[in-house]
């Protein structure tokens, strides 16, 4: 499932990705900072669901919603706004918006919206054991984390946690931790140009720069330095 995320605030885009990805790890998330970038994305692939900020420079979220609906009549659209404005709500209904969320986003409200569109409900029904493991990863990804110490924190057998995690999330525990750290590294590389690549690696939990750079390039096809210079 291809999901478009459009907001002119990079931190908001990162928040959406961080909140949505654990719930639906098989969704393909495509961020854009404005309507122009969003339209460029949809030229190359079909979009099934879009989260759109209502107020952006240039094309507004509602204008973009109307264009998306014209191109993909079956697309589902969620409008996100910092203002609870009745006129916005009316216009949203007119263009066929499915949901309407307000900033700051509340995780439980976003989760309810995501549930509605999840293709595989199993990803929305993690066991308490897996949820606790995910929360630890999200809180402590910058620390030394492995399956054994996380299993110890939540008082379960590591083999049992490994099996449940893989079954429910669709990735092994170590794969998920690595992917999450890389996502956090991408955010730091974009948002804090003063940090060296070595500093970024350390802040997201990689204790060896070479391993960080090799892993980053393997997953993204470019080095951390190239990623930063490209400005993606």
UniProtKB/TrEMBL annotation:
Pfam families: HTH_18, Response_reg
Keywords for this protein: DNA-binding, Phosphoprotein, Transcription, Transcription regulation
Organism: Pontibacillus marinus BH030004 = DSM 16465
CDD domains named among the record's database cross-references: REC_YesN-like
Protein name: Chemotaxis protein CheY
Transmembrane segments: none
Gene Ontology process terms (BP): phosphorelay signal transduction system
Gene3D superfamilies, per the entry: 3.40.50.2300, Homeodomain-like
GO MF entries: DNA-binding transcription factor activity; sequence-specific DNA binding
Modified residues (4-aspartylphosphate): 53
Residues of the Response regulatory domain: 2-118
PROSITE patterns in alphabetical order: HTH_ARAC_FAMILY_1, HTH_ARAC_FAMILY_2, RESPONSE_REGULATORY
Domain annotation HTH araC/xylS-type: ranges: 131-230
